[in-house]
Amino acid sequence: MKTLQELVRPNIWSLKPYSSARDEYKGVNAKVFVDANESPYNSPYNRYPDPLQGEVKRLLAPIKGVEEENIFLGNGSDEAIDLVFRIFCEPGVDNVVSIAPTYGMYEVCADVNNVTYRPVPLQVDEVGDFHFSADTLLAAVDEHTKAVFLCSPNNPTGECLERAELTKVLDTFDGMVVIDEAYADFMECPSFTEMLTKYPRLIVLQTFSKAWASAGIRLGMAFANPEVIGLFNKVKYPYNVNVLTQRQALEVLADYPQITEWIKLLKDERTRLTKALRAYPDTEHLFPTSANFILVRVRDAQALYDYLLTQGIIVRNRHRVQLCHNCLRITVGSPEENDLLLQAMHDFLK
Description:
The structure is a single chain. The protein is an alpha/beta fold and 350 residues long. The protein contains 13 helices and 13 strands. It has a seven-stranded mixed beta sheet, sandwiched between helices. Strands 10-11-13-12 form a four-stranded antiparallel beta sheet, with helices on one face. Strands 4-5 form a two-stranded antiparallel ribbon. Helix 4 (54-64) packs parallel to helix 10. It starts with a helix and ends with a helix.
C-alpha cells in the first residue's frame, strides 16, 4: 500500500499554510483584540469566526461517536469533496472512479480540477433494482487513480450500497475511499465512521442539510483519521465556516432530540409514501430506499412532472440520468405535502 505522503500531491505535502490571527491566538480571556484588523464595532459580527470550529466539534463528536480530531467542517459537503481533488489529484495526470448514476458534484469537481472522472454503471438485477459491485468498480482503477467516490445511500437511486462490497473496496484499493453518507440518518445499517481506525484512507462525508433540517446554513462534515483532517485544514480557506453558521449549528446540536423526532416522522412518512406509490397505477418500478427520498419509474415521467408543476408541486425529473429512464425522485415531505402530492398524482390519471 502507498503511504499517505505518496498519495498527496507533492506541492500540497510541502505547503506552508496561511496562518490567520485566530490560528495564532486561540484564548478567550483577552480584553482588547487589535491583532486581526477587525472593526471594533457591530459585535459580535465584527470578529472573525473560529477557523477550526472547536465548539461545534465539541458538541458534534459524541453524537457521531468520533473524536474531535477526526472531524472537518466545511461550507457544505461540496467543500470537502473539492478538497479531496485539490489535495490528492494532480491535474491532467490523475483520475477518480465513481458509480453511475450518483451525486453529480463528484464529476463537476473533477472537471473543475482537470482530473479525469471515470463513472462505472451500477448493475441492474432481474427485477430492476440497482446493485453495486466492488470488482466492477476496481476494474476501472489504474496506477493514476487517487480516489473513489461512493455515495451510500446513493443519490438519486436511494439504496445503501452493499456493505460487503464497500468493505472489499476499502480492503483492496490503494488510494483514498470517500463514502458519502449525506443520508446516513435515514438508513438502518451503521455508519462507516465506526471504521475510521481500521481504514486510515477512509473519508466519510455527512451533512447538516438533510435529516438535521439545516440546508440553509451550508455546513458539511468530513470524518477521517487525524492526518487526513490535518491536510484538509492545511488547504482550506482560513475562515471557511462563518460565525452565523457556527451559531446556528450550536443551536441545532443543543436540540438534538428534536432532530431524532423529525427523523422518525420522516421515516414513517417514507413508509406511507412508499406504500402509496407502489399501489399507484402508473408506477412501473419502485426502487428500495434508505434515504429521505424515493425513486420511482412511471409510464411517462415528463408528462407527470409537467402536470405536477402546474399544480405547484415540484419533484425532481431524473428521466435523462443514466439508468433512470422515466424516473422521478420524490423527497419525503410533511404529511400535508405528501397528501397534496398523492392527490395531484391521482388527478393526473383523470
